[in-house]
Structure formats: structure tokens, C-alpha cells
Amino acid sequence: MKCHNCEEQGLEKRFKDDEVDLSVLKEALKDYRDSRNNLITALQIAQEIYGYLPRKALYFIAEEMKVKPAKVFGVATFYTQFRLKPIGKHLILLCQGTACHVNGSEFILNALCDELKIEEGETTEDGLFTLQNVACLGCCSLAPVMMIDGEAYGKLTPDKAREIIREIYSKEKV
Predict the structure, then answer these.
(1) Among 47, 46, 59, 52, which residue's Cα sits nearest to residue 4?
(2) Cis peptide before 144 (omega within 30 of 0)
(3) What is the Cα–Cα distance from 153 to 161, expressed in whole angstroms?
(4) Which of 8, 67, 166, 167 would suit a FRET pair with 37, their CA atoms being 20 to 30 Å apart?
(5) What is the SS3 assignment for 99?
(6) Maximum C-alpha span of the chain
(7) CA-CA distance, 155 to 42, in Å (whole number)?
């Protein structure tokens, strides 16, 4: 079943079309597939399984839950919790909240982009890092702050941010 609305709006192109094992998702959704009210839960489960929302999984969810693919694509693109592409092994969340902004988060972003050779929202070529801006991490007293794999790094300077990335890279090489 194709999603003509999705094609018209260019939504399909935003989702990676990887081959994925849908049997794992089918088993995980067995308690949810008969209720349209569980669409967000189904998407969360799919993202937990695959690390992001592959296109084939979205069509599968639509079929299993008996909803139009356009609705599934719409929900997946509306909520920021959902990832449309695979992320790196280490997810860097850089706070752009007011406290971080006034304390120089844009300089941290520039340093990270330069160090990683990527732009915000991208993943490094080696698949190790994904860099994402977030509205707020709730660590205002540490501004500017970033979180990597759930660990907060605060009172950042561009040099300190680069150093943290280099330390993680060096641990990866070992």
C-alpha cells in the first residue's frame, strides 16, 4: 500500500528506506495493533527496535493498525521525539535554551560542527556521532551545556567541547 499523500508532500523522501526485519515489530505490536489510539506507542516501539523509524516499518504499522499511511507519516513527522534517520553510536544533544544561548551555545555548535565535520542534524561518516540541537536540557545552571549518551557536560567552551569529542574518539579507537 503506497501513501499517495506522502509522495505528494515529499514525506517519503524524509524517511530512510532500509530493509528491516518486520517480524520483530509484528511481535512487539501484537497487543497494540487493534487500537488506533496506540499509534504513538507503536511508533515508539518501532523506534526502540530500529533506533529510528524506517519507511517500511511505517507502512507496516499503518497496515497493522488499519490507519492510512499518511496519518502514520504525519504523526511521525509532527513529534520531535521521532527520528527519521539512523543516529550515530553517540547522540550529542546541544542545548539552545535561553541560558545556553546567551552563554554562547552558537560557539559550541560551531566548534562541534568543525570538529565532527558535520552540520547540526547530521551523523559523522564513521557513524559514531549524531549532533542535534534541542530546545532545553533543563540544566540551565550548567549553561552552555550538551548531553552525550545521557551524560551532561556543562560550562562548555569551544575548546572544552572539542576535547570531550576527542576523548570519546580516543576511547572508541581502543
Answers:
(1) 59
(2) yes
(3) 8
(4) 8
(5) helix
(6) 52
(7) 38
CB 68 within 8 A of CB 62: yes
Strands 129-134 and 90-95: parallel
Q: Rounded to 5 degrees, what are φ and ψ at 21?
A: -80, 105
Give, in degrees to the nearest 5, the angle at Cα 67 between 61 and 70: 85
Grid coordinates standing for 123? 551523523
Amino acid letter, residue 114? D
Find all residues with CB under 8 Å of 64, minimum gap 6, and list them: 26, 29, 33, 42
Check if the beta carbon of residue 71 is closer than 8 Å to that of residue 39: yes
Would you give the distance in Å from CA 158 to the centre of its chain? 23
Contacts of 86 (CB under 8 A, 6+ apart): 16, 18, 50, 51, 52, 123, 127
Q: In a 10 Å sphere around its CB, with 0-12 CB exposed, 13-18 middle and 19+ buried, how is residue 160 labelled?
A: middle
| pTM listed for this prediction | 0.72
- Is pLDDT at 155 greater than 80 in this prediction? yes
Tell me how far apart the alpha carbons of residues 97 and 121 are, in angstroms, rounded to a whole number: 17
Task: Give the C-alpha separation, 94 to 146, whole Å.
Answer: 4
pLDDT in tens, 136-153: 999 999 999 999 999 999
| Strand stretches in 36-98, DSSP E | 90-95
